[in-house]
Amino acid sequence: MNSSNSNNGESNGKSSVFDSLNQDLGLYFLGLARLRSSKGPADMEEDEEEAPKELNTINSSGGFLVVAPDKLSVKYTSVSLHGHDVGVVQANKPAPVKRLIYYFEIYVKDAGAKGQIAIGFTNESFKMRRQPGWEVNSCGYHGDDGFLYRGQPKGDAFGPTYTTGDTVGGGINYASQEFFFTKNGAIVGTVCKDKEMKGRLFPTIAVHSQNEEVHVNFGQKKFAFDLKEYEAQERLKQQMTIEKISLPPNISYGLVRSYLLHYGYEDTLNSFDLASKSTIPPVYIAQENGFDEQDIVYALNQRKTLRQLIRNGEIDAAISKLRDWYPQIVQDDKSATCFLLHCQKFIELVRVGALEEAVKYGRIELSKFFGLAGFDDLVQECVALLAYEHPQESYLGYLLEDSQRDIVADTVNAMILSTNPNMKDTQSCLQSYLERLLRQLTACCLERRAVNGDQGEAFHLHRVLNSGRDMKC
Predict the structure, then answer these.
(1) C-alpha to C-alpha distance for 145 and 153, rounded to whole angstroms
(2) Judging by beta carbons within 10 Å of its beta carbon (0-12, 13-18, 19+), is residue 310 exposed, middle or buried?
(3) Segment 135-147 mean pLDDT
(4) Which of 44, 60, 174, 203 could share a disulfide with 91, CB 3.0–4.6 Å?
């Protein structure tokens, strides 16, 4: 995960090339550290979308219906004489799209004279005197005949009718790109969400005969339908689809083994080899894929030692070992690698409450980075730890997490790998083969979501991995 360094004995010209490249690799990890500083936990999620909370009393066919003061109930008060005498009202906001599923319900208090009630979704330009589903860019499930209407006045047989006392729901499954409808807590059916439906979709209800009255639930109270269970089943369905994909044991073995080698987990690697020896013979990823185990076996014991020291907060010992074993890595005291090591030393002093010593260390080692682009913001955040009696509980608490030590350990690990004279691709020092595979998976998932207009949950690899683990527990 880090920069490559020049080796002792290289020519001055080649050494300068290595130094420049090493600085770039060190900056890669500095970028990771700065990314953590600029994003709090809440920022890791996409911006929260506003969900519908009430009915839109401005954009509705107000001549045929009355919306209650709470903006959650409607009643048809006229006498319907024509097909276009429909009382239609949309929600005040469109259905949120950056989630797995959106859902709302209506309760039919009175089916009125004809029970011509409908629930569905329409776009912003929908004609507000037509039933949802009768016009393009709309879909509706109608109570009087149980038909589903999609973009035309002719419906298709879909489900049961509904009337007084029934609770009916409508939802959008963004993962499957389907509309679904429910009645009294049970799924009625699903239908493909046409790609032709343009624009944002608003939850919509319609009443069309005298005294029809419905109440709307946008989630302000418990749904009749178990939405959480439906979401869980949808995620399980996605997980099962993934698990049906067969991966040859030798490939998975090679990926895990290369990961342990890359990061210097020598003891875990030995245990892994021992445990798998009886069932899986040692295998290697094909050479044609650019894998050369010798590249990551390089300095395995030394990398293990340094990782353990950094993970234990023993930064002085780690720097001392680097000076003995790889002086070229720490010869430039203003490199990104040295900067991260000095920052971590300062953090460790704050961790144990040695504040006076931290101040002295900061004046000597961190002050030189003040005002330097790419360094200054992280320096200031480290120093700001001194202002808090309980820094772990502050917004800067991320600096005291083990993951911050991991970034520094990964930096040193990659820098050592880059000193290998046989290293063909210095960029391979940054990540293991397994991580590159997961990056490709992430890119594919993001591309797939983009094809659907960025609808559905944002892809978070940690969430996917944790959901798979939880399902097996």
Answers:
(1) 13
(2) buried
(3) 96
(4) 203
